[in-house]
Amino acid sequence: MISFSKEDVIIVTGASSGLGEGTALLLNQLGATVVGIARNKERLNKMKEKCKNPENMHIEIKDLTENIETLPDYVKELKNKYGKFRGLAYCAGIVEVKPLQILDLSAMKKIFDINYFAPIFMAKGFADKRNNTGKGASAVFISSIAGLQSDKGMITYSGSKAGLAASIKSIAREQAAKGIRFNCVSPSDVITSMTSGILGLKETKANLYPMGFGEVSDVSNMIVYLLSDKAKWITTQNYVIDCGYM
Amino acid sequence: MKKEEFLLGLEDVLQREEAVKENDILDDYDEWDSLSKMAVMAYYDKNFGVKITLNQMKDIHLVKDLINLAGDNIQ
Lengths: 246, 75
What we know:
The structure holds 2 protein chains of 2 kinds.
Chain A: E1 9-13, H1 18-29, E2 33-38, H2 41-50, E3 57-61, H3 71-82, E4 87-90, H4 105-127, E5 138-142, H5 155-175, E6 181-187, H6 201-205, H7 216-227, E7 238-241
Helix pairs in contact in A: 1-7, 3-4, 4-5
Chain B: H1 3-13, H2 34-48, H3 54-58, H4 63-70
């Protein structure tokens, strides 16, 4: 049984919806202190209303793409407020389906900002040993099976998620000597508020999932496991959670 | 760059919790590993336009060695 104590302070980004929300709620339920970050105050508050231990659920309003280079300072500020971090779950991200004909660079950069650059700079802040609890600290990032097996219209999204998984592996190797673990999870189609915006997803892909589409908890359970000491020998990995889709 | 500013910068590059002092021995720092050495090389390149070679790095054992390497860039 995985459990945390309230001294285990864990950052969850994208905490107001989807995988981030599910992860924040589960960690909180298992006893961890959660610092949930998202842009939307209202939705963050709604998430907080659902949690089991409100005294150990803190929310922070922040657009992570606003000034990416200063994210390590932001992590330091949070550390001064909440204490050193035992974990980071980076669940913020956006998806956009856009074929080559209509690609534009500024839109691509926006996706890379939140899906690639921001997680790397959050990792930089988290890996700073002045901000984490040292050996046993663990970070998990949401990549995607799109980063491993790309589909039509996923040029930018796939690139950002493949890049993230590759870079997290490098970071994991750099940090391994300190006992800090970095892993990715790569889900396929999990029904969240983000993916339900993809036109025709349910209709076109339903027959590819013999056990149905994924649920948030199918992924958040894995994230929480990787954050816990049960996974103390696991680092540099990228776990596919796709019901055999690939 | 003032020496005090450099020492703070070095503290940040090495991610040290205690202050870096001018008379400290780098070789005694836990943080003084190969990745940190590369980070210091990048710091010199970015802030001073000084490219430290790996051979030069082998002879760096003290904070003072680093200060000397920066020449006039640190007052």
